[in-house]
Amino acid sequence: MKPVLIGGAWRASASASDTFTAINPATGESLADRYPVSGIDDVEAACRAGYDAAVALGALPDRVDRLAAFLEAYATRIEGAADALVAMAHDETAYPETPRLRSSELPRTTNQLRQAAAAARDRSWTMATIDTATNIRSYYAALGGPVVVFGPNNFPYAFNSVAGGDFAAAVAAGHPVIAKANTSHPGTSRLFAELAHAAAVEAGLPAAMVQLIYRLPSDAGFRLVSHPLVAATGFTGSKAAGVALKAAAERAGKPIYLEMSSVNPVFALPGVLAERGAAVARELFDSCALGSGQFCTRPGLTVVPQGAAGDAFLSEVALLFAQGAPGTLLGRAGLSSVIEGIEVLKQHGAEVLVGGAPVDGPRISFANTLLRVSGETFLTHAHALQTEAFATVNTVVVARDVTQMAAIADSLEGNLTGTIYSATGGEDDSAYDVIAPVLRRRVGRLLNDKMPTGVAVSPAMNHGGPYPATGHPGFTAVGIPASLLRFAALQSFDNVRPHRLPPELGDRNPTGTMWRRIDLQWTTGDVAK
Fold first, then answer.
1. Are residues 144 and 275 in the same domain?
2. pLDDT at 159
3. Strands of the sheet with 521-523, listed across from one edge
4. Is the model's pLDDT at 483 over the cut of 90?
5. Nearest Cα to Cα of residue 322 among 372, 365, 356, 274
6. Cα 85–362–338 angle (5° rounding)?
7. What percent of the chain has pLDDT over 70?
8. For position 529, what pLDDT does the model report?
9. What is the Cα–Cα distance from 479 to 94, expressed in whole angstroms?
10. Are 100 and 154 in contact (CB under 8 A)?
11. 242, 390, 391, 413: most buried, per Cβ within 10 A?
12. CB-based burial label for 159 (10 Å; 0-12, 13-18, 19+)
């Protein structure tokens, strides 16, 4: 049985209640390595070690430079271990070795780590604010404890609990991390943890800077996110698990940042369907099928107007769904969830046009599935008809007119993204002006004339949105430096003597390039004497 990483040492789980293995989704077979299901004893040990590491980290005068050096060295170690990481993730997820793993997701991961290092060194993310008239100064700083990160199944690198965006943001903001691996890829997480631990030791960081637990029963998971010594939690996963963890954390007054569920609606307006409906249909299918439909930004709902253009669009999409090869899902639990989701959609009036059933054979797969429902039926059962089916699945809502399309937008729950396709010549501008303001309130990222699946690691990116897409609409899981603010506390210093202030709030700019707000003006200069 593989060891856990707790307190700076790889050791046997102190309280394993069971073991598990990862599954190769392409064959349905269990992989050889066994991993422990940790209990309360491991949680308590990890939280204590993580808190001690946070205290030790806070006492290091050069901690910012060490954290940045760690993130950069870790990225370099990942690149050096690419062959082993790609082979392991391929076995555990069935994702193609290239381009998906080696050429796309792995470089994105190392890029995130290096961006986080740059943000830590720059320090502008702390939003240091100085009011010289009152001698009150404030900035965002670390919370003073370890951050727990739960990684999802669909991004074994870029959202991995030991390497992904939440990990990078938590470290750059000044925290040790307790990683809870996703059980779909424990081996990949273990390889990352080995590399991260070695890089942390090399950077002179506390021994428990990075810790790894593979799996937890629900009571231990609730204890972890609500533990008195834990600072905050970042979670990406299912709505059911996220809501349960949110309740446990909030009962204890602990912040938790969630990414859970999103159907990412696409509105295709009348003019664009007449202008280039077949092209939009192809973009829709390609977006739905990317990664076997297991992207959190996959479009799960498409709204079109009734009429000849809408009918032609629906026929074209149905043909593409029928002709496309079904992808491989990440695990049996995901397959069961898709089956349940399709049943909910059917029970509330959605008609299956294509697919609707698992693919026969040992491979874990579900047929490409397209459903249709009228605008009236959708508005009657709006909540149920937004049930997420995490595969190549899309429900097309046929609306009576633009007014009903706006009503459908108004009935939507919170989503990560919302997209509007419109004609290039301006024929849809009046319809856009009706729908866009309504949709804007329901989504974190509003797109025009492009599918939402791509999530750029850009400072301007918002990978967040209203509930239930996330637990809080004011934060993003992607986009540095904004993503660091989830793991920070606003600290104010009132009339504190100069030599007792953190460097970011001193009269002299500590880097010479850090942006600070001094007397209502953003500047890289020093406080005027």
1. no
2. 97
3. 489-494, 136-141, 129-131, 516-518, 521-523
4. yes
5. 356
6. 85
7. 100
8. 76
9. 28
10. no
11. 391
12. buried
Task: Return the H-helix or E-strand segment holding 395.
Answer: strand 393-399
Domain that holds residue 241: 4-18+32-260+476-485
Beta pairing class for 521-523 and 516-518? antiparallel
> What's the number of domains the chain is made of?
2
If you average pLDDT over residues 313-329, what whole number do you get? 97
Inter-axis angle of helices 218-226 and 40-58, nearest 10: 20
223 and 298 housed in the same domain: no
Q: Could you give the residue numbers annotated as active site? A: 259, 296
Does 190 share its domain with 228? yes
Cα separation of the two ends of the chain: 63
pLDDT of residue 160: 98
Residue pLDDT, tens place only, 203-220 = 999 999 999 999 999 999
Spatial distance between the Cα atoms of 507 and 132, rounded to a whole number of angstroms: 10
pLDDT surpasses 90 at 15: no
Instruction: Tell me how far apart the alpha carbons of residues 148 and 235 are, in angstroms, rounded to a whole number.
Output: 8
Instruction: Establish how many alpha carbons lie within 13 A of residue 373's alpha carbon, considering only the half-sphere containing its beta carbon.
Output: 28
Contact (Cβ atoms closer than 8 angstroms) between residue 315 and residue 280:
no
Residue 384 resides in a domain: yes
All residues at 6 or more sequence positions from 26 whose CB lies less than 8 Å from its CB, including other chains: 94, 328, 363, 364
pLDDT, one tens digit per residue, over 170-196 is: 999 999 999 999 999 999 999 999 999
pLDDT level of residue 447 (50, 70, 90 thresholds): very high
Which pTM value belongs to this model?
0.96
CA distance 237 to 153: 8
The CATH number of the domain where 274 resides is what? Answer: 3.40.309.10
Distance CA 125, CA 490 (A): 12
Q: Which of 493, 491, 489 is nearest to 231 (CA)?
A: 489
247 and 283 in a common domain: no
d(CA 304, CA 401): 9
Place of tokens 């005068």: 61
